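Hey, can you fold this one?
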Amino acid sequence: MSELTDFTETTRDVVVIGAGAAGLTAANELRKAGLSVAVLEARDRVGGRLWTDVIDGAMLEIGGQWVSPDQDALKETIAELGLETYSRYREGDSVYVGPSGEMSRFTGEMFPVAPETEAVIDELTQRLDAMVAEIDPDQPWAHPNAAEWDTISWDAWLRQQTDDDEAVRNLAFATGSAMLTKPTHTFSLLQSLLMAASAGSYSNLVDADFILDKRVVGGLQQVPVLLAERLGDDVFLGQPVRTLEWSDAGVRAVADGMSVRARAAVVALAPVLYNRISFVPALPRRQHQMHQHISMGFVIKVHAVYDRPFWREQGLSGTAFSPYEVCHEAYDNTNHGDERGTLVGFVSDQQADDVFTLSAEERKTRILESLSHYYGPEALDPVVYYESDWGSEEWTRGAYAASFDLGGLHRYGADLRSPVGPIRFACSDMAGAGYQHVDGAIRMGRLAAADILAQVRS
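Sure. Predicted structure:
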């Protein structure tokens, strides 16, 4: 990877803006086809929302980390790069904390709720699976009911189906707190169905053993790191693109220390970051309107490392859920071959807003107290504690991904991937299958590269 000391002007066939999984996949596909590329990355590292780091002696996956069985593009890339995977620890009982605050142990997929609540959850899950089966994740706006489903919130639709509050909370958090990381009244039923369709079904999405199946030995950031190594000096770090000039003749990307003239560009950033670039001329009106209806969610990923995985001694898998807790879900996140035990918990949407009104010490206390409700008092005393706060990351602005507000998906979803002159767009936020996952980023990187190659060869 290159570091620049003076302003440099260079020329390539294609300039890629962003060195996450989407941008690096696109760049590698283009290079393999014989085109020259330059990848400009604002950060001092590659990987985007994938980031593995050592904190106080513990290796932590600060960003994305899991691989599920349906993620064929990611699995192909992992295999092709020679990386190994291992299964998430899941032996023993899971834990659920209900509305009374009582902890219950259970096995299987269904939470230990009252029989009437279980019946409601089961019936609505079947109905949602049937609705999701009708959704094409690449074009959910094409469904005959798209406008109707996009103009009612996820929360409101669920509450129309039942007055069982516990059932609603458990059904809602799968796509709300857990995935889109927004309050469930702020996004639509259609957006929720898309989230489920991207994983194959609503049942897949709520099945932790499916959606959080495996991890990569050494961390998932190795995928972009190894992809960048193949590109060598064509990856330029610390180069935020400030201006992108474009016309039918090509593009010129101007960063802090260099500019690149190229025949085409791939903007491989989350849509919420497009406004950090001055497009000359401006993007079309449709693009400007669309981006006013897209925003990131907000989640804190909490890492708590202990001298041993003590919960296993209690016969617990480490898997824990509650729509009533500050940490709405948590898992055994112990690294491959590590004698110490790691728990990862998630604090999402309104809960995340609320704990950030506290001091760092008060916030840590509140979060660890929540974990102790699942695992007991030993959870209060980790040897390493760290919070991944992606909302404060200058070049991310939230997590896990961008989604539309109420009514935005059916109005503007079809425009997300639309090229603008010689500019293509690629990131996990606009994927169908693999939406907001690394798998989706790889798929979108491949798609952008294939589109450019088709244009070049026509």
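The first helix runs from residue 21 to 32. Let me know if you want another pass with a different chain boundary.
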